[in-house]
């Protein structure tokens, strides 16, 4: 049993906590162990019902850690402030933030300063909407870097079940990184008190704990008796001690409070006094606590109510304004409530109330005081609190928490306040908080002419996090009259983006098409025409492809690239021509016209939201498959650098990694391609399976592993990540059916592979296609060579025709490789030699290596095989290198003779 001095009431709740304290001590000692082989951090979690002693355990954890030279930062969630974004993480980092000058903070956080700084309240947000995933990543980096400065560091988070979602999202991400950091995180919470997303985040945090969460138990009768005698004196008799346990149920908080009441009332701790314990216990909680508060006087009660309404950031000045009392009277009330163990000064300890913030001694007290306020008065006080917070210059976002509690009453000003608060929340990366504000504004309700704008803003706020929700709001906004032309055009574009990312591409196309028909000729109509063609271009069905391509070609022919709508149309025309295998030189010429001095135009950058990432990926892809890999690599590397520096860590970064991987794959840097594509797949999984970006990462990785000769690993990836029909409605690069067909052939499932490649042929609709982008014809020709040579020859001829129309060295060289694979003798040698000559001029090193090996085998040339082996090694094509070595070994006896 944990020992305690008779006057050590503060540590009374630590009785029977030996196992928990041993775990804490062990974790702190491990944190400080310089001889440890690694710098792994750890997480401990303690759970239990209200009053069970979680807060006391964290307090003792602080004492243990500080006694061993650790820096300790702490924070607490609150029942009434769960809607305040980043509330708990801001509390947690206050010691570090206060000690750093602005220039020091910028130096420590580097590029992440402008991303995480607004969420932490240390700098103003930028003009662009912050990506929540990026802000979360920025906070992880911020704490990681600060931890190195303040090592050894212990983070304490109490009442995590009441933490805001933004903090929990950060903590879940941070917990996954603890293996690389020397930080001890200790979390306390009530089980079952969190719901939905918060509960899921807490499950993730619990999974990262050093050991299963410890559930704190109530005191045993013996512990209660020991604590009673330690507090009241050894003369407390057994019947009295048993009644203390019976009255409190062994709840540590209630036990400590009851014993404090016994001391205050000078009740003798003997059997004759035991009957007085139940009335005393009722005064320590619920209505009894309220009665005790009221006994302190009306002014003290008003002050406590004001503190409960504020919930966080409680100062004497703010509470005085809310309670409408003079500062001197408020100060007296604060001291009175502190003496009564209802309020206490927050850190730094022992600071006078007028010099710092106040907090409730225990969350149970805060909840009881808040609930004791009459309903009508509580609502009115929240309205006054919003005004007080606003008058103090704390901003609309700070006031919005209180306005969320006010009853709707057709208040135009409240609607505008909530819209402004939503803008502030979006700017710091808290779209869920913005959504709450705007949904509350809808309840007011807004004026008819304002309502569509509130719905439009709701759609914008949720675009990055909830496509389905975005769709509902934007469709409703567009169905109402009132949006001006620019807002309406932007709403249609955003709606189409949300539909695309929700795998509703056909509806996205219809939505834009309908709006185009409503508009007169001009910039707005041209913009939506470009958007319409953009979604048509990535639609795999392509039922009306020839007509659409002609329409797009005619529209692009009038474009000079004088504005971004024209540049978008030029990019779309280039992409369309590339996918259908039109002349590559003309494709490049059209794409180049969309640039300004060889670079992306202002407003068309990777983080510009007007057009989105899809357009630029089309531009880069057009360069990839027309053998202009230098331009493609420059574009995709720029995307990666921009998203890294801007902190865009979600789907955008996943796509950037996928397309960097595509460029590496085409260049023949297969190891680098695999690394990039695996990074993309990890990020894509966080965003959600089944989305187009997820398919891009998976398909690209399978294709790269096949090129490397890692067939079993490719099959494993395909099985693990569901790389099989049904495929998404959007175009995926490389072509999904071609890659899946080749995979099936590689694992020996020949009939299934042929069926998949024939499905790719059918999907092309008989239209022209780029034989490098979608190499189904060549793969199918090889698969049918033995069983249906006539059909194989037709496919090989088709590949040759398409390659010559397209005109790149890669396309022609690959077509010659296919043709050579169907021949024998001198014909095979001749075609293989021609394939090598074309692919020597191609930037695609893997294909060149494959041609060299095939030529070396056909010509029985050790020199060509050696060249192919060397290049295959450089590419990381292990399977091709093994094939070259086997051929060299077979030819070795002939060479020796």
Automatic annotation (TrEMBL):
The keyword ATP-binding applies. It comes from the Bacteria. Keywords: ATP-binding, Nucleotide-binding, TPR repeat. InterPro entries: AAA_16, P-loop_NTPase, TPR-like_helical_dom_sf, TPR_rpt. The keyword Nucleotide-binding applies. TPR repeats lie at residues 613-646. Pfam families: AAA_16. Residues 16-186 form the Orc1-like AAA ATPase domain. SUPFAM superfamilies: P-loop containing nucleoside triphosphate hydrolases, TPR-like. PANTHER family: TESTICULAR SOLUBLE ADENYLYL CYCLASE, TRANSCRIPTIONAL ACTIVATOR DOMAIN. This is AAA family ATPase.
